[in-house]
Amino acid sequence: MSRRMLISALLLAAGSAQAVPEHVPLYREIKDWVVACDNQRACQALSAPESFGYSPFSLQLERAAGAQAPLRLSLHYAEPGGYAPLRLDGRALSTADRLHLTENQGETTLGAEGTDAQAVLAELRNGAQLRMEGEREYEAVVSLSGLSAALLLMDAVQGRVNSRSALYRPGSRPDSEVPAAPKVPRLRAYPGVTPLSEVEQRDIAQQVMAATRSQWVEEDMSSEPEAEAFALNEREALVIIRTWCAAYNCDFAVYRVDRQPPYAERDLQLDPLPLGHEGLSGWVSYNPDTGELGYLYKGRGIADCGESGSWRFDGERFQLASFSFLGRCAARNPGEWPELWRVAEP
């Protein structure tokens, strides 16, 4: 689809979206960009090459929902050597003085917020490629192909199309018409439970592993499976079996069972993940002190793409507490995968 056709299609969709906004969470890949919006309609757009080629240089745009939410723009460089002059399609970036160096947990970024970010974005939006000068092992290039469509999608999700604060083609609609963020979900508390004794842990883990072996065993498994058992409540236990591991991810089988023989299997009662994801693979763990069941799956070894999620147990079911996902490998750290599900802190 051509750029003109893509923008036209999004404009038509955005027009109808004023009454019925896009469903969230949302994750969409548009040419060399990824748009991710969480359950609170907070959105971000990340540069991520469609070719999956490695680039240490990336651009990120973030904006929360609501009329007063400012735009945040940040440039990340993942290699040593610091930043060099920026060029947009071969000429100096005229708004570079709006970008400010910031330190966060030992990482330096170039960033701007509010009107400064809007000014930089206005210049970038009409360009094709942002490049950092200098000779280096990997080209420091951000492709801007798909940026306009990404901005329009962010506006549509947040109900900003044709408003004065829209990122793509601001219009005459007053910002007072921009919807507020939805109410943040609040989870039921974890009631806690007396831990299993060492004997219970061993017996439940071994018996469940033996009873379910036919469900997950494979002939070419390179390592012995291992199982852990945890008390869920006074009647039931959680059993996590690590079945086998590849280079940087493992497979797991997770069961909810009676604490008494014959350890009958029960429904896990796990809230579904957004966007049809299955989870519970890569690395799975349970914290009996907090009632949190979580997983992390690396898309590749350096973990610049992948997904993670967690659930909090309320004594009866596992409530979805968090979910992050990045399908494009874009030289980002695991903690920088877009967060698609958030809940209120207890």
UniProtKB/TrEMBL annotation:
Instruction: Give the domain of life.
Output: Bacteria
- Signal peptide residues on this chain, from the entry's feature table: 1-19
- InterPro entries associated with the record: DUF1176
Task: Keywords in alphabetical order, please.
Answer: Signal
Keyword check for Signal, yes or no. yes
Q: Does this entry carry the keyword Signal?
A: yes
Pfam families from the entry?
DUF1176
Q: What is this protein called?
A: DUF1176 domain-containing protein
